[in-house]
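Hey team,

Filing this mostly as a record. A colleague (T.K.) asked me to run one chain through the structure pipeline before their review meeting, and I want the input and output archived in the tracker in case anyone asks later how it was produced. No errors, nothing strange. Just documentation.

Input sequence:
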Amino acid sequence: MKKSFDRFLVCSLLLAFVLLTLTLTAQEIRQAPAPLFRDPVYDGAADPVVFWNNYEKEWWMFYTARRANADAADVAYCFGTNIGIASSGDNGKSWVYRGELDLDFENGKNTFWAPDVVYFSGKYHLFVTYKKGVRNHWGGKSSIAHYTSENAWDWKIEGMLSLSSEDVIDGTLFQQEDGTWKMWYKDNSQSWLAESDDLYSWEWRKNPVIADKPHEGPIIFEFEGYYWLITDEWAGMGVYRSNDLENWEKQSYPILNQPSSRTEDKPSGAHGDVVVIDNNAIYFTSLIREGSSILKLNSMKMEYCLIPCVVLPFRLQN
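Output structure:
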């Protein structure tokens, strides 16, 4: 039976671009592999978060392990998903699949999406979207679950966050200078904000903070004297900057909104992660595509101090 186009969609993680403020010579720049990583089991890696694992002493990547090669109805491949693990022992040059996190805390087969990880008070804290059960079509309640771990392998459920509705996903965290934690997340295709002193108790703002255009997957980071928020608008990524984490200015055009000149690099970038190391902001993105996919790294542009876009040197430093 012929599948619909949507059921052909699969995902791979691509190192989209690195934004440098220093001038590099050609000898100092190497081109990263494209794709950087593909899940060898389901071929559906999406929504990555990249962090240094102090326990394993290497770079780790958590991601939504979509079941992209499943012969199932409509968007069922996006449900029943676990959080996949990939690691790099060569400072980001290559990545190897390590399995999936065991996050189950109630009976049955359930759904986990869009992880984010921070290290605080001697523990890793994982915030991940949770949906009970497995569905063929979009729907069902969703919430953000909080877990803790000392080694990033073994996770303890701490509870579900009480936020602005029963349909929240895609949390991204940042600790400001006074120690307060902020978490932006998607609700009703807008970015909302919650705050905490300890990562356990949260208070959410009564109104969305980014609502000019429908989106998901907000990603927060600090770079070159500004705070940046990147959102997935389903046709490229919206880019916002702020001086104070409160007032946001949007750049006039999205990034990763067009295919590159490479044949299979289409249609656009999606929910990703940014790692800032020294003066480099390294952007990892998932790309929903038909067939294999690679991304032309030097075709993207960003306004303000994020120009130019160049190709990543292979070495990540912890």
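Quick notes for T.K.: Confidence is low (pLDDT under 50) at residues 1-12, 14-29, 289-318. DSSP finds no helices and 20 strands in the chain.
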